[in-house]
Every structure is written in structure tokens, then in C-alpha cells.
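pipeline: protein-struct stage 2 | run 1193 | Protein translocase subunit SecE
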Amino acid sequence: MSSNEIGESGDGLVERAKADRAAKKSFIGRIVLFIQQVIAELKKVTTPTRKELINYTLVVLGFVVVMMAIVWLLDQAFGWVTVFIFGTPLN
């Protein structure tokens, strides 16, 4: 696509970028804008119902138990391989 098909020439982009840079808000203005955006996003947050919260908690606990089992199995397997290669364990 050429710049004519897009509808802007390269010079227009440079001029717009310079204008945007000149219109940039001050440090305090950017902080205020950030806080306004944070508040707007927090208004979108919904708290889960009691049933959902219990369900999410059980899912997380189940996942943690599964991961603990995987790590334990890997630890046992690597321990067995180490004893097999190097000899008796260090009890």
C-alpha cells in the first residue's frame, strides 16, 4: 500500500507527531490521568459469589496438590537415579 492509499502522507505523520509531543501533558497531568484510568478499571471489577469463591479456592488447592505430587515424584526419581549411579545414599 502506498501512503496515498492510507490517506496520509509522510509529512502529515511527522507534523502530527510534533503536535502530539508539544501537547504532551505535564508529569502531574500524566499521574492524574493514570489514577483516573486505574479507578475506571477498578469500577469494572466484579467480586465473585461465595459459591464461585469456594470453587476457585478448591481448584487452586487441587492444582497445588497435583504440582506437589509431581515435584515429589521427580525428586524420588532423581534420587533413585543418583543412588543408582553413585552408590549408597547419604542418610
